[in-house]
Design a protein that fits this description.
The complex is a heterodimer of chains A (about 150) and B (about 240). With about 150 residues, chain A is mainly α. Helix content of chain A is about 85%, strand content about 0%. Chain A starts with 19 loop residues before the first helix and ends with a helix. Chain B has about 240 residues and is mainly alpha-helical. Chain B has one domain (about 5-235). In chain B, strand 1 and strand 2 form a beta hairpin. Classes of the chains: A mainly alpha (about 150), B mainly alpha (about 240). Chains A and B meet through helix 1 of A and strand 2, helix 1, helix 2, helix 3 and helix 4 of B.
Chain lengths: ~150, ~240
């Protein structure tokens, strides 16, 4: 049933090689040129343009990122220096106020001591004068008593 | 030589029968050209539709064509190398597309419905003339690629690791086109025959897995043909140190 003439000599056969071969070769060469201008070139242009676009964008983004990082570091150092400066100012002000407070305290203390001393002296004076007066009165009184006793005898 | 509709001759009639065209005193296999024109016409229509309005933001068919382009570029680049793959990409891509479209067209389209006075329509790659033409083009290409890239130094390749290789390398120049053409021809013809015989014996269900296998083989053969062609060209342009 499957009686085919494989090596059919003149007419037909599987290995019948004739002018189909060179014409097919020419057709394939022509197809190469047609596909090159119709398919490979235009699609290649579009794809390569896009690839370039994408890689350019990535490069740009990387540059921007590094710039941002630089700026961030810059700002951070600025922030740090500002912070330390602020700290310095605050501590200076604290010292100043501490000094002022101590001075005021000392002044008030010395004033209070002085007035206390004055009051004490005054009290002492008054006490001694009062005692003197008391002694004098007691003397007068005793004299009076003595006189009266002597006189009554 | 007329088509015989007797079912007992169904399989027998397919093999080695051709639709002859006589032009002057040259004879052509008409069925090969008919199918190749139909399939290549469809391919060109598809490609021109897909590339008509190309945008940076691909849509629809452009996606498919770009995928195809990328696939072919990868194939050419890995086999031929970064330096010259651009020159050969259209040729490799054309080989791939031609073989693929021919194989799949031959397997998918029910050509049997179209009756010819002699022979029958089928995959153009199931004809030995087509595959030899492709294989000889590949041979010419790799010679041309080697000579144009390296000049006479191309022939260093023949004595490359040692001069002992010379006869084998010369032999290779003959076996390369032979194996390329017969591999493709044999695979596609065998697939058509197997499907034909199975359809003749068991017309229902059973041929379907074989048909799927045929589609697989067809695609693989296209890939193999293009890859080997690219490999031969890459081998010819490779610099030995």
């Amino acid at each position: 049933m499957l009686a085919f003439d494989f090596f059919g000599a003149t007419e037909g056969g599987l290995f019948d090689i004739n002018a189909t071969l060179p014409l097919m070769a020419i057709q394939v060469i022509a197809l190469t040129y047609i596909l090159n201008s119709l398919f490979f070139k235009p699609v290649g242009n579009v794809v390569e343009k896009r690839e370039k676009f994408v890689s350019n964008n990535i490069l740009e983004a990387k540059n921007k990122l590094s710039e941002v990082e630089k700026l961030e570091a810059d700002l951070l150092s600025q922030l740090q220096s500002a912070r330390s400066e602020a700290q310095k100012i605050v501590s200076e002000a604290e010292n100043e106020s501490d000094k002022l407070y101590k001075e005021a305290l000392e002044l008030a203390n010395s004033e209070a001591n002085a007035s206390k001393e004055k009051a004490r002296l005054e009290i002492e004076n008054q006490t001694s004068s009062a005692r003197d007066q008391l002694f004098k009165q007691a003397e007068d009184l005793s004299e009076l008593i003595v006189n009266r006793l002597i006189l009554e005898k | 030589m007329f088509f015989n509709h007797l079912p007992t001759n169904f399989a027998a009639l397919e093999v080695g029968q051709h639709l002859y065209w006589q032009i002057g005193n040259i004879r052509l296999h008409g069925q090969v050209f008919l199918t190749s024109w139909i399939l290549l016409g469809a391919l060109l229509v598809f490609i021109s539709l897909g590339t008509k309005k190309m945008e940076n933001d691909p849509k629809g068919m452009q996606n498919l064509l770009e995928f195809l382009w990328d696939y072919i570029r990868d194939l050419a680049r890995t086999q031929i190398g970064e330096k010259v793959y651009r020159d050969w990409m259209p040729f490799i891509g054309t080989l791939f597309l031609f073989v693929f479209v021919s194989n799949w067209g031959g397997a998918l389209i029910p050509w049997r419905l179209i009756k010819l006075p002699s022979g029958e329509l089928g995959a153009p790659t199931a004809d030995i003339n087509t595959t030899i033409a492709l294989a000889l083009l590949v041979s010419l290409s790799y010679f041309y690629a080697g000579l144009s890239n390296k000049g006479w130094r191309y022939f260093e390749y023949y004595v490359h690791p040692t001069p002992i290789m010379l006869p084998f390398k010369i032999l290779e120049d003959f076996t390369k086109p032979l194996s390329l053409s017969f591999r493709l021809f044999g695979n596609i013809l065998a697939d058509e025959l197997v499907v034909g015989v199975l359809v003749f014996l068991v017309p229902l269900v059973l041929p379907i897995p074989v048909m799927f296998l045929g589609l697989f083989t067809s695609a693989i053969q296209a890939l193999i043909f293009a890859t080997l062609a690219a490999y031969y060209i890459g081998e010819a342009v490779e610099e030995h140190h």
